[in-house]
Amino acid sequence: MIRISAKLRASLFLASLGALLLAALAGPLTAGAAAPASAAATEQPETVCIQCHSALPDKLGAPVNLWRQSIHAENGISCNGCHGGDPKNADDAMNRSRGFLGAPKEADIPAFCGRCHPGVLKDYLASAHGRALGKGGPTCFTCHGNHQVLKASLDLINEKSCTRCHSFERAKTIRAAMQQTEGYIVGIDRRITGFQAIGVDTDRLGKGLFAVRNRFHTLFHDVDVARVRAESAQINTELAKLDRDLKVIEEARAKRKIAGGIAVAFMLLMAALVLLLKKTYD
Question: 81-110 pLDDT, tens per residue?
Answer without folding.
Answer: 999 999 999 998 999 998 999 999 999 999
